[in-house]
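Comment thread on ticket #2218

A.B. wrote:
> Attaching the input chain for the structure job we discussed in standup.
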Amino acid sequence: MVNGWARLDDRGMRGRSADGGDSSGRGGEAERYRLEDCERTPARAASWPTLRLVSLLFTGLVTGCVSNSFSVQNPAQARGSSALLVSEVLLEVDDSGVKWGSGKVGDALKTALIKNRTFGQVHYPIYPTHPVPLKLPVLARGDIEADVGGGMAKSIVTGLFLFIPAGVLQYRETFTISAEVLVLREGRKLGPLILESRVAADHTLFAGPDSYAAHAGQLALEDLAARISEALAQHPDWFSP
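C.D. wrote:
> Ran it. Output below, let me know if you need it in another format.
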């Protein structure tokens, strides 16, 4: 009986040992997988900030490689006049409707009219005390047109690639300005002349407006002033006594 019990205990112990070992093996393997998965999760989480840091550093490098570019659409051919249309004119400008450069149209137009010898003297913004028989009222409107379709597609691509292409892809904004010009002489109203200038500015996503808007606006004003000067020169009869 002792041997029988001993043999039974021995078989039972072997069975329990075998079962326990098998269970312990499966549990250990599952536990190992869980530990490895836990180790991989922080690694993956840590990799995202690293990728973002690399993308931002890359963006900073390539942003300086792509410069802003500007294009005047059908630029005016400014030609100096051989003879003045009239000795002096009083310039009146309303440019409150120019969203990107209010207050600058008058100075740009005055400079062009004198430079191109359209008039000998342009009174603006200070007017003389003596009467000036010729007045030049100008009503200007200006806006900025964004390339909505192309800009949206580029924004999506930029986001998908973690802003890496931000310094390479260029976004286009077109600065527009139009002017209605009248000539008032001794109670007569001549005109109007309707003129428009458009300047396309291509810039990167992170380019500040100060880096391209001022230059694009100046180009548009200079082109508009040249167009007005040229258009007035084609009507010398408006200024003859």
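A.B. wrote:
> Thanks. Noting for the ticket: Residues 1-14, 16-21, 53-65, 160-167 have pLDDT under 50 and may be disordered.
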